[in-house]
Amino acid sequence: MSKQRLLTGDTPTGRLHIGHYVGSIENRLALQNQYECYFLIANKHAFTTRADKPDEIRQSVIDVATDWLAVGIDPNVSTMFIQSEVPAIDELTFFFAMLIPFNRVMRNPTLAQEIKDKDLGDKYPFGFPLYAVGQCADILAFRPEIVPVGEDQLPHLELTREVARRFDQLYCSVNPHTEDKDYVKSGGLFPVIQPKLGRVKRLVGTGAPDAQGNLLKMSKSLNNAIFLSDDADTVQKKVMGMYTDPKRIRATDPGETDPEKNPLWAFHEIFNPDENWVREQKEAYAQGKVGDVAIKRRLVDVLNTLIEPIRNRRKQYESRPDDVLDALRLGTKRANEVAEETLALAKKAMKQDYFPRTLRIE
Ligand code: ATP
Ligand code: MG
Question: What is the number of other CB atoms lying within 10 angstroms of the CB of residue 160?
């Protein structure tokens, strides 16, 4: 029996951080052998906010792929590939764009949040909302069953589910009353995919909250991340300088321990395996019996213990950039085989299958 498929990906806007680790990577590693896995580097989506920085995007493509290998993605087991080298994705994007009302795309709360967080105002390019449609194609080109992501991606996945239903109903005669899980069984080309959230849905960053008092999501682009490739000193500097409780001047002041308000405790709860220590010290912190510095020092150790083996494996791949590119070449070839097949089937369903074609990656 063939395995079910899993797809997920990252935008090459920087290196991977500990939010990616708990939000999505843990799931990818756990499911790597159980599912046929596709991991996409969304380089075209990186152009939505940095079209003027092609060098940086190119470097980030290699960085993300290197991070994947460092965390333990096996390129011989899983297919890791570059989005822009899989043209079937673009072709599906165009067809899918006809199936979703424009206002529906603009109502996507993740886009609205990104516009706010990244301060895009009304200056964002046409391609910015288009990326939400493109992401439906990134996913559906592989007809996966599940998509492991962080919480911010759920609105995008809902759009993907809508596109799949609409396509299957319009072009594959699937009855609109069909249950989501039965779309393929009922003749649909595209499965109505299932999101799979990680152990942590949304890890906060190391910085201060926004004007409404909400801590921001840890993001590559918001200068609030601890990266899986940070060296031990950098981890220490970032933790020692991180935002905690601004009202706390002395260690004897009672401190804020709500992880929604103080990232120091969010991080301990998520990454520190010693639950008793966390419980006891949280109480002491709330009563003004322990200072920030001691709690931060412990966090430095906890994070370095997680990152150290990843860092070491990464060093080996950093010295072999050709191997990283070879892993992407191998994966991109495989990805094209599947995506071309999907596109051919989609065109057939849409009655636009005029001439067969083959595509080759050198
Ligand atoms: P950018 O700031 O450029 O948008 P990002 O840090 O949001 O970068 P993405 O490449 O957009 O990273 O996201 C890759 C995956 O990691 C997605 O599934 C996303 O939901 C997940 N993810 C990203 N940040 C977090 C976080 N802080 N907590 C949990 N999951 C996250
Ligand atoms: Mg993002």
Answer: 25
